[in-house]
Write a structure and sequence with these properties.
The chain is an all-alpha fold. The chain is built from 13 helices and no strands.
Length: about 230
């Protein structure tokens, strides 16, 4: 009986210690757990948008605004069959581009942006996608997130593009107070070594889609439970 009582007491004390450890965990400690668990889950993973070079990647990312990567991947084969270089895209009319991408949202704005983007690449950059944030963000339809994806996945420079999944999950994991994606990106870069940025941002995106969707059941979200369940 004394042994059972001691075991119970140790169990309670152990539970209290675990709770205390969870409560006292720092952002850096949580970030380390996130990275380690995601590396186990996704040791290798593909870039979600189909492309063949930096230009087609940039076009695909620009098209992905307010639509899914899956939908973009459904329309880009026909688009790239018609225009997979800046020269070819610049030769198409806005109406022709619009017709090729009509299945996704914001079609009018995206068609105009793709044509203007291609024209500037041809006229100013000799049809070559530039490798600086400043020059990329001057292109029509290219904001900081798109530029970051191109720099990261297109050219291999360390970058941490923040999309809605990353912004939401980092807040959920209390790794940022992220009132906006700019702050969330800054916090992500301070928490993880730049050597893992290019892979880790994709791992978080995949985890969000598969285990912790914005809408629907959170039952599979083991990482949040690991970090915070008492």
């Amino acid at each position: 009986m004394a042994g059972e009582a001691k075991a119970k007491r140790l169990g309670v004390e152990g539970g209290k210690a675990a709770i205390k450890m969870i409560e006292n965990m720092t952002k850096k400690q949580r970030a380390k757990i996130v990275q380690e668990e995601l590396e186990k889950l996704y040791p290798e993973l593909p870039i979600p948008l189909d492309h063949k070079d930096a230009y087609t990647l940039m076009v695909a990312v620009a098209l992905s605004a307010q639509t899914t990567d899956k939908k973009v991947n459904q329309i880009t084969p026909a688009l790239f069959a018609a225009a997979d270089t800046p020269e070819k895209m610049a030769r198409l009319s806005v109406e022709e581009i619009r017709e090729l991408i009509k299945q996704i949202g914001l079609t009018n704005a995206k068609a105009k942006n793709l044509k203007k983007m291609a024209e500037v690449l041809v006229e100013k950059h000799n049809s070559v996608v530039p490798q600086t944030y400043e020059e990329l963000e001057e292109l029509a339809g290219v904001g900081h997130k798109t530029a970051s994806v191109v720099m990261s996945q297109g050219f291999g420079f360390p970058a941490f593009p923040v999309d809605t999944h990353i912004h939401r999950l980092m807040k959920q994991w209390k790794l940022t107070e992220g009132k906006n994606v700019v702050q969330t990106e800054r916090d992500a870069k301070s928490l993880w070594n730049e050597s893992v940025w290019n892979k880790l941002h994709l791992q978080i995106i995949y985890y969000g889609r598969e285990y912790s969707p914005a809408r629907g059941s959170q039952e599979k979200d083991f990482l949040t439970k690991m970090l915070f369940e008492k």
